[in-house]
Amino acid sequence: MQNLDLNGMDYRKEVERLYGLEYGRRLDAAFRFALLLAGGISLYFYTGEDRTLWWIGGQTVLHLLHFTYLRTRKSTCNFREVMIAGVTFWAIIAAFIWLPAWMIVQEDPALRIAGAAGIGALLVFLIHRADRVLSVMVGEVAVVGVAVVWILYATLTKVSDPSAQVGVALTGGGLWCYFTVTMFTNRRIRIDAERAAQRSVQAQKMEAIGQLAGGVAHDFNNILTAVIGNLDLYQDIPEPVERDALVREARLAAVRAADLVQQLLAYARRSPMQVARRDVGALIEQLQVLTRRLLPATISQSFEAPRDPLWVALDESQFLTALVNLVVNARDAMPDGGTLRVTTRPVHLFTDDPQPDGSVLPAGAYAEVTVADTGSGIPPEILRRVTEPFFTTKAVGQGSGLGLSMVEGFVRQSGGMLSIESSDEGTAMHLLLPIAAPEDTPCPGPGPGIDDLRSALPPEAGAPARGALPPRSDGGIRHIA
């Protein structure tokens, strides 16, 4: 459940954004702290002032507290927690700015230049930070204002000429006023941009809902026609054998309706899952058996399981169903033959990965399963739509358009991500699933089993192809679904 303010701000995403700004890019954070440490030590040897060591220690302790607080927030956050994060950042600013302010009022030109550079860097960072919470931003402006007032006071006491005093006061005050206006303007630009993005997302949702409603109505109407038609004939035909056949046909139509509901639930990420720790490599071997009869001789196959077990917490049946969908799509994209490769490997995300829908894929260890083909690829104009419900390029009656949306729903529900890479040389579907926490005794139980899935497999490989996607002529493109 999201916690939103009156302006629609998601507090959890705001905390994640603050963490990303300060510590999300490890190389950037390491460079900043190395620069802080090197600058502080150099200043100590240059001036002999113990205050520089206190400055280094204060920055280190406050950043550790700030880092720990941001990383230990729960999945739901409120305004109070965002404010606490803001207050700890105020402390970091205050602990940083006093030393450059002291340096500016010294007689040594080298200290003055270094101090001015330090304050300038802080102002640029605060503008880039673009805090949205008004009280947090006001606190940042106030901390900078106090430092500017102190610098002006210390400087004006050393200047006797009235015109020079006026010039210094106007320069310092103008700098602070311009900084304040820029902060407020930047905040307004950010809020307007977020609202525009929300309106765009809402419009896309309404379009998707319209497609969803139309697709569901069309598919269910076909199913109900089959059910009602067979039951009507049941009333008119006296022969027991034919009546049994009609009942079977009606039941099969009802099963198709149940399958459609399951796919819709998977797309909505509400499909019930039987989660257990499974070795992805063993499941890939099952997939090879499952899809053996689906692939014609014109398609060369390669199923590569990892050398060491990769344990993932998932629903085995839904995982295999998702991969079968991807294999069938790859087959249909290569009507004249080609190469199908299913590979698995461990990967590690060192930083959180923001997604286009606003969610964040946490840093950590993942198992990447890739289904790649050498077909004609997906045209760029439809690449971002291929996971929408009921969107399909296949002929009427050859696909519901729920295959990829079901795959995406399953992957998201499992805590992972689906990404698609496509060019005129083929398409690769990447499923990124978080590696399960280790256990003393793994549970490689058989799960639903292959036989339970065979009845739901698509037609034989000898059946007519469902229509490959049209060719494209541009270079490689990437879409994160």
Automatic annotation (TrEMBL):
Catalytic activity reported: ATP + protein L-histidine = ADP + protein N-phospho-L-histidine
Group of enzyme by EC: transferase
Region listing for Disordered, in residue ranges: 438-481
Compositional bias segments (type: Low complexity): 456-472
Domain of life of the native organism: Bacteria
Pfam families linked: HATPase_c (PF02518), HisKA (PF00512)
PROSITE patterns per record: HIS_KIN
Protein name: histidine kinase
